[in-house]
Amino acid sequence: MAQNLFQASFGILFFIVFCWVISENRKNVHSFQVIIGLMVQFAFAAVIMHVPFVQKFFKWIANGVMALKDATMEGTKFVFGFIGGGDLPFESTGNTFVFAFQALPMIIVVSALSMLLFHWRILPLMVRGISWLMRKSMGIGGGLGVCSAAQVFLGQTEAPLLVRPYLKDMNRSEIFSIMCMGFATTSATIMGLYALVLEQTVPNSMVHILTASIISVPAALTLSRIVVPNTQDRTSGKLHSPYEFSGSMDAISKGTTDGIRLFINVLAMLIVFVALVTLVNMILGNLPYFNNEPITLQRMLGAVMAPVTWLMGVPWKDALSAGSLLGIKTILNEFYAFTELAKITDAQMSVHSRIIMTYALCGFANISSVGIMIGGFGSIVPEQRNEIISLSFKALIVGTLSSCLSGTVVGILWWFG
Hints:
The protein is mainly α.
């Protein structure tokens, strides 16, 4: 245990020092802000993981998501029959789970429900509460505070919409922080899907996924303000609703339409990325074997990223497998990495390492998201497009490190559970 704690503590120091080395203005990095940011992240994680009534609340949310999964299954059974989870018209001893028709449709249901909660003012109320907490604890402006709260629930291009009128006046540091938070977090629309994929591999997977999206916000704010320190006045701002609904049914309808687009997008990406990985491995298979095993993309990525996962507190015996997951997430996407994590057994990786990697993978920090960030965020605030382009790859690095920092923090607290 002592070795793991030292290892992870050294990792936290390394991530901070690395961000300082690539900082645009090292002289204006405020060590007090860094310490406060780390304290906030540790406090959020500790409260969620170790305070009994908070644990019960998060488990209640997790149970709600699982109930939502069962309700979605009733819909897929009705529409798709046995391929959607209904009774088989024949006897079978094999696996009858069809991912596209039994898991992915949850995206559509959650998207519709999210829009309904927004129309009922429940989601905006939660955003305001978290925004106030972030502004008071992290010392950020109102606009950035609202955006940081929204990142817990919304995606990298949806969250900035809530402060759209203020974006054009934000300084370079604030824009960079928004970008980093977008890469470091995920969205409520697909949290349940991640949890569904991991439910047999990671205990209380939904609690961990939700916790990851919360604690990665202060991590991204802390590291982003090291790389691009704020030397100007903070931008004020308040919640601005980007959605207008005529009623509850209109909210459900628009949420369903958005969910269908995301459903098709995820489905297509999975087909393409699995095919591309397989194709690359076929090509690499023509090379001479290394250690009596064929060279694969996963093994190559594992070798490159293994030191990073070791710094997060993952034992070296698990580091190659963990590094492969982190590499897949960065080069391809987090969803494919989660599907690979779901295949890992107790013999291949410890529960502690799997929990750390759940946090490290839970974010949109990948190469394809850079294009989404530039295209989506850039179209929301064209006045800042040049800044967004110039900061995009730095934001990708910081977003990745923020998720890794979250995994490191949780890995430390896990030993005290």
